[in-house]
Sequence to fold (462 residues):
Amino acid sequence: MTSSPPPPDPDKHPVEPSGDQQLSARERNELDELRHRVSTLESAGPAGAARHHWLRSTGSVLLILLASLLSLLAVVAVWANSIVRDTDRYVATVGPLASNPDVQKAITNRVTTEVLAQIDVEALVKQLEQAASEKGAPPRAAQLLGDLKGPITSGLKSLVSGTVERVVSSSAFDTVWVNANRKVHSALDKALTGESGGAVSVKNGQVAIDVGPIVDQVKDQLVSAGFKPAARIPNVHTDFVVFASKDVGKIKTYLKLLEIIGTWLPIIAVLIAALGVYLAVHRRRALIGVGLGVFVAMLVLGVALTLMRSVYLDHLPVGASEAAAGAVFDALVKFLRSGVRAVGALALATALGAFLIGPSRVAVLTRTGCQKGIGALRDVAVSAGLPLGAVGRFVHRFKRWIGGVILAVAAIVLFAWNYPTMGVVLWTGVIVLIAFAIREFLDTGTPATPSTPAPSTPRTSV
Fold:
């Protein structure tokens, strides 16, 4: 018989370290994670799980679509709720209208017409004729005064219009306008509830603010300018229409409901979106779907606002100023459009972030490039004497937790902000990126320890 060769003597032939032993600690962790993922995928039975996955995917898609629709309604609800309940928000909405040229022109025309309606031009001409007769003027001169009715009316209109324009374009009018709107900030609420009274009237589908105080100021200035007949102008109430629509009754029902649920609807939409992502088989893809779904919903809402503006202007009452009505509509939906842009930007940023953490070639190249760039900067700083020992090891150990805290703080900031704009969203995103870059810079990793062969034990012969 031939005897098998004796095992190699570790003293004479040291055992070479295996491939795993030559890896650094970070590489070994990554290898273990990859082995765990492969084992999980191999252990899953594709035949038995196919139906289960289909149900989860279907449920996830339905929840994401519902969350996208609710996000659209949530933006409208928050806007309606802020317009009705927040006086400062309402004043900030309609306050700039006082300095809008189109609105000023419309108010000037409205007040001028009202003042001229209170002045009897024919009576003024007759008074001139009587005065001329009493002074002994020839009959021909009295007849000529009668023929001056047209020029007198035109001159009077120019005088009144110029006076009204000076009043409306003055800083005093801005104060009157803001104070009046602050007192009657519930104008839209009255339109939606059908109430009326005070300086706000709601009738025939119109929300109108009484600008009678402007008439009083014009009256005083005309008298001061020497036009004594203006003193006989009575106290009148004339309305400037802020909003007009035949469908106020329908809008009333919808927005009143949105006002009630305005506080909770955004939270409900976020929870449903989170449930859709949790239920999905591929959660990262589901998160991308949520971001894109909400972005599309905001795009649809923005287009709808543009179409609504055209429809509103096409159905204005006869004689209404289209330019002024357009300015009023733009003012009323200004913060709604701002909310649409903010939510759309946040949704797009979420989808982009979920894409960049994925396995696609573009995402991997982007991450690798950023890591190499930040790593090179870190190496230069360490070489220059920047101590990152304990801090670097801490950041490396709790790297995922630190990332979660950064995202959580950003989410809290956006939710706690009363009315975040697109600028707030963009700056928050920039700060988040800077925080992640700092995290990567501080992550020095665990230094690789050289692998040494196991100490040999002396062999004893029996």
